[in-house]
Amino acid sequence: MSDLLPDLTPISEAVTNHIRVEVLARYSPEHSQPFQDEWMFEYTVRITNLGAETVQLLSRHWIITDGLEHTEEVRGPGVVGEQPILEPGKSYKYSSWCPLKTPIGMMHGTYQMVRTDGSQFDIEIAPFGLKAKYVVN
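Above: the chain's sequence. Below: its structure in token form.
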């Protein structure tokens, strides 16, 4: 993912059913309000079809855990308003946001996919950390 911003860390990667999901995340201090317990994180996902069949992303399921071990689940159709179709060898990349009430947390989940024959399957989004950077004086 060298074409992404260099300050995006950490990375997670998983391959399920010939579909690779890579995620980079970064803390966004310009959109955060720590004194109001709101830390914003941007994450960028690249989904690559390594298989021989065309597939489509139908929905997402995120599990988000903050530093106090409070867990939220987010489910919905597609990603950023789209349900991309991935032909063999093609990738789809998008960015989104995650607010937390603590400066650290974790995300992971699944995407539900469908093949051209109508069969559905889930692909893994490996866990990745969310961590605000601080300057110590």
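The chain has one domain: 11-126.
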